[in-house]
Amino acid sequence: MGGASPDVIKKDFWGYDPVTDKWTAKADFTGPVRAFSSPFVIASDGYVGLGTTTTSSADDFYKYDPAKNSWIKITPYGGDPRYDAVSFVIDGIAYVGTGNPGLKKDFWKYTPTKKP
């Protein structure tokens, strides 16, 4: 995923195994392709959202489940579409904010649904 500019964006997704020192292709990203996204990890799940698509700034998020090797769209972000946002996780809760366009200053919190 990602790209050199909003005009050149990829949807492929890869996993690295440090034990074997090998990269393996995983399920392609199923959302609109994007660059300048805000990824984070909670437990074993990866999340990718926001960023710039080939036509506009994005405001959505997707979760990657490594056990199923699949992507699903999750709860909408809630804030304005943006790219170059900061994301981090503390105690299993994600925080995403700032970014562009317009030098945003807000932050949003995401608490995932607990797995059964």
Jot down its keywords.
116 residues; mainly beta; 4-stranded antiparallel beta sheet; 3-stranded antiparallel beta sheet; Kelch-typ_b-propeller; Galactose oxidase
How would you describe this structure to a colleague?
It comes from Mucilaginibacter pedocola. This is Galactose oxidase. InterPro entries: Kelch-typ_b-propeller. The structure is a single chain. This protein has strands at residues 2-5, 8-10, 13-17, 22-26, 40-42, 45-49, 61-65, 70-73, 86-90, 93-97, 107-110. It has a four-stranded antiparallel β-sheet with strand order 5-6-7-8, with no helix packed on it. The model has no long low-confidence stretch (mean pLDDT 91). It has one domain (2-14, 22-110). The protein contains no helices and eleven strands. The protein starts with a strand and ends in a 6-residue tail after the last strand. With 116 residues, it is mainly beta.
